[in-house]
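User: My advisor, Dr. K., asked me to get a structural model of this assembly before our group meeting. I'm new to this, so sorry if the format is off. These are the inputs:
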Amino acid sequence: MKKSVLKRLMKYTKPYSAFLIGALVSTVINISLSLYGPILIGKAIDHIFSAGKVDHEGMIPILALLGLTIAMSAVFQWIMAYCTNKVSYQTVRDLRIQTYQKINKLPLKYIDGHAHGDMISRIVNDVDQVSDGLLQGLTQFFTGIVTILGTLIFMLTISPVITIVVVLVTPLSLFVAGFIAKLSHKQFIEQQATQGELSGYVEEMISGQKIVKTFHYENRSEKQFDEINRRLYNCGVKAQFYSSLSNPSTRFVNGVVYTSVAVIGSICAVTGRPGPLTIGQISSFLAYANQYTKPFNEVTGVITQIQTAFASAQRLFSVLDEEEEKPDAPDALALKDCEGNIDVNRLYFSYSPEINLIQNMNLSARKGERIAIVGPTGCGKTTIINLLMRFYDADSGAIKIDGTDVMDITRSSLRAVFGMVLQDTWLFSGTVRDNIAYGRKEVTNEEIIEAAKAAHAHSFIMRLSNGYDTVISEDGGNISQGQRQLLCIARVMLVDPPILILDEATSSIDTRTEIRIQKAFNKMMEGRTSFIVAHRLSTIKEADLILVMNHGSIIEQGTHEQLLGKNGFYANLYNSQFAIAD
Amino acid sequence: MLKLARFLKKYRKQVIIGPIFKLIEAIFELIVPIITAKMIDNGVKAGNVTYIWHMGGIMLLLGVTGLCSALICQKLASIASQGFGTVVRSELYQHINTLSHSEIDKFGTPSLITRMTNDVNQLQFAVAMLIRLVIRAPFLAVGAIVMAMLIDFQLSLVFLIATPLIAIVLYLIMSRSVPYFRVMQKKLDRISLVSREGLSGVRVIRAFSKQESEHQRFQSAADDQTNTAIRVGKLSALLNPLTYSIMNFAIIAIVWFGGWRVDAGGMTQGEVIAFVNYMTQTLLALIVVASLVVTFTKASASAARVNEVFDTVTSVPETNKDPIVKINHTPKIEFQNVSFSYDGTDKYAVNDLNFRIEPGETIGIIGGTGSGKSTLVNLIPRFYDVTKGKILIDGVDIRDYSFSELRGEIGMVPQEAVLFSGTIESNLRWGQENASGEDIQKALKISQSNGFVSAMSEGIQSPVNQGGKNFSGGQKQRLTIARALVGSPQVLILDDSASALDFATDAALRKSIQTETTGMTVLMVSQRASTIKRADKIIVLDDGEIAGTGTHEQLMENCEIYREICLSQLSKDEVNKK
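Assistant: The format is fine. Below is the predicted structure of the whole assembly, which you can bring to the meeting.
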């Protein structure tokens, strides 16, 4: 499985394969050159023997070559870093854009069924993880391996005997690095979990601060906090201690290698057994020994990183492999000059096969009629919107607009005939003007202002610091919930669609504006077919048709009088509002 | 940053002893090249194998001792730094608990959490580095130069040129690239913002067929981030090649000039090798120093953010912790010329409120959003303190009560129904830990929760997830009402807390509160006229001021705003219905 993940990932690097090859080639060149350095230094040192026995002339070509080696090595080191950066960041960008693009194409069913935070984290964190772990991690891995091999080869050319000594110490180095990585990894996971628990607790308590204060819970919550905090301390000390072992242990293993090389190298130089060695060669060996454990640490360190990256890549690919929204039929019509007649025939729908939501729904709405959707919160009014606008497709039966089945209409032209003002307003971070103009491509300033005026939004917009150019911040902190809804109304007013879907939850708008909005709504509804999620009795009573919903399905439909006559759920709902509390 | 040093007091021992052990290791590291030099000059050149073994033994001994002292230092560093972090978190948490809503709102919950986690972690790391590296790294860098000077002063001039050069390169590159990391984070935040909007607005986007333009928006955010990343990458890619080149050319210089010094008899061959070693040590130590600078810059920003919290003083102080004497025959709650503004300016959220509530009365408070309803009730348990005027409970200014007495008096059900992870029972016992089972059952019954609670297989032992996410909005609201009732408070405040209930449950709830709780003063805030219509007294708020008080009938007569609200929500019949 890992192989296929890697293979698939490599496909993303294809457009940048020149950089990838550049990175690999320059890695090999850079490492070879930089490993060659100590040999040259050693040779140069051999020309310095003692007082009066120094061959400066002999040193010149060696040092010149050394200088060249250093310069070249530096150049290739830079190329290597540059190419790696290019490949990883650009691949990451492509992956990100593709994932986002994919989300745009996924059916609503997927998006509704998955936590948004989790999907964002895939786009942001997992992609970063892939970049850090797989691309940069793999280059580090590659560098490490090349360095180890290169060092071995260079050492062999000087003295096979000492090389064997060094190789014998290698398992020690591997063992130490692996052991520390394992120990600290386990502790880090525990620390992470406890840290998460602590943040969760703090979040719960701070956001529930009112309750904490009302019930005088401060002391009790401090005790609980301290308990988690103490656990965090315990695993934190361990995690930090274990991970901080890595540097001193590395230095120690290096010290052992260094000592062995120094002692055995010196003995070789003196006795010529088991092989002859010059002092300069000892110095080259010592230089290698000093850096010897570094690549081992890098390689072992990078392995865990690569593993997490694989997991991240799989999480990404699982999104990319999701089935997309079915494309429009090739012969789908573009809906033009829509009248707004809607017919629903024998419609069946459910989100999951176990629970039948809508069964045999029939509905006929002529141009200009008002359909009120009534029921407790969470009764499933979104289901109706989902079906009308084809965010979801019905299981069987048909919805027809002006006599044409919605399945035969292109989605974009179908959705364009609906205007939606929902309770949970959606604005994007941008200016007020851009938000109002969201639904139309070319629009004049006058039209925007006119729509804002019609939605009673103009006066508050003018009171904002920058008027229509005020940027709506991410959390929407600078405008109130009611004002957000007014902007959404203006957005729909500008598009002027033949069918409206309105959420009558105007409770977040102050009383007097609410009344004016009601008027604007009424005006907007003239001549248009409207679906209203209704909360006020006046709207309900005046509706041409009332759909009574509960637990996601339509349980009754008819006019106010018809439904009262049925003496069912609606009648009960209607009467209970005025139950006398005494 | 120094301000936070007080939290290290407990760990003074570790902070002093730790670096000493680290110094021992560093000294040993500096000695090793000299021993190598001796091994070569006195051992190899003199052909003395015993001497070589001897020196090798010393090297190994130094290594082992160095390792042990380093381990001791690491242990001390983890104890001190994690201990420091634990103390800071605990103190922060306690401090936040003393803050009032104005202060908490000013920071925002997410920001307080990051301060308590990320920022404290950053500081913790800085403390560890303080013990582990702040003494060691500069000591190694300077030490290597000093050792070189001791061996041969003339040749050490190479160090005096190369070291500042390396330092300058490090400074130039890092001072330019490090600030970019914050920029990169911002651009990454932008990417997650666009994705979040794309997901939460998915219906609007598809309704307007704006997928293409959203894609463009995302792409430009992604491109922007990539371009910055590559630009920074190019710059920081210079760091290693440049510093290593300087070091290597310095080594060439050492070998070349060292050759002359040896020729003149001022140095030995082994000492030249030691010089080369010291040069490498200097570079590595300098790189560590540079990264330390980054660590401490980050830490000082974190320290500032943590200190900001510590320096914030609550605007609602508890001045008296002793019990007070209530005055008989006074209204239960009385507002006298109460004004309040959130930011201390003269933009009052509520202005000049005057009213009295008698014991046992049920009061309805109605008005549009922003009319000050919630503000009014939030002033009673002192979530905020009045800006002008005063509030009396049982004839005593609420600022003269201790917090526990004042809040013990009040059962508050805030607008947002918040439950805490645990069980239903643990949530209900928040107000009174030792409440009897009967009290709990009664509270469940009054709040209309006994139906769904007993339908759950585990009853009141049923688990509650964080925020009560496993309950519906209506269930949560009923449980929060039950929680407030368990303590049998004198005053019950319902801040629009029945909004998610259907009309039937809402009506049943109101009825049982009225019949089952004799003598309890109830304040009911609502947007629904039907909810408060039958209260003993209704207070109508408009733009922070009282627009009318009285019964439903009186207000229908003489309060224009109340009439507007009622007429917009109720039909004529219902308005007039008794």
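One thing worth pointing out at the meeting: The mean pLDDT of chain B is 88.

User: Perfect, thanks a lot.
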